[in-house]
Amino acid sequence: AALDVKNMFFMIPLCEQGKAQFAFTWRGTQYNFNRFLQGYRYSPTIAHNVLAKVLAEILIPPDVTLYRYIDDILIGGNDQESVKSTMKTIQEALTELGLEVPEAKCQGLAQEIRFLGVWWIKGAASVPPDTLDKTEHGQNPSSVKELQEILGTLGYWCKHIPGFSIIAHPLYNLLRKGKSWEWTEQRTNYYKLLIKETRLFQQLGPIHLTDP
């Protein structure tokens, strides 16, 4: 199961001493934030730690594991009732603190779930189907920008794909500064091979073998 806390940054109240650091003036009038805000250098870290402290106070069954990142929470386990009750407990605890957990963004009990852009199947990380479909059905890149976008997408999974750096090397060469754009048949073959290998290793297996 997965939960998403709405506007996590803005749910963190600022202490009186800290409000002055976020004050700003607009047309001669000074404004102060009462809540934490996005865009600050350490905003993600602070928001992540605040939620971590809140979750640490909640009693979690030993057969359930929590994963969290800023405002996203993944609840994993082999027992459905344990996961279900933990999800409900967390929702109630967060709501009592004034945090909003929209039902529309919650993912209930399932063998397959989307979390942080990764498709999880029974605890194993997999490349999302829409990521592969978009790449497979698209045309060959016609510019440096398009190639950067494609390699950025596929490159996210590079550590799971054997020989990724070797296959993608001719493509990355086109991104070198001062390199003229020349899309050859050989690069097309490497590009197709890269997509084929990503599809082959779509289900990447669990990161930690002992995790649920």
TrEMBL record:
SUPFAM superfamilies: DNA/RNA polymerases (SSF56672). Its EC number is 3.1.26.4. InterPro entries: DNA/RNA_pol_sf, Rev_trsase/Diguanyl_cyclase, RT_dom, Viral_Replic_Matur_Polypro. It comes from the Eukaryota. GO terms for molecular function: RNA-DNA hybrid ribonuclease activity. Residues 1-120 form the Reverse transcriptase domain. Belongs to the beta type-B retroviral polymerase family. HERV class-II K(HML-2) pol subfamily. This is ribonuclease H.
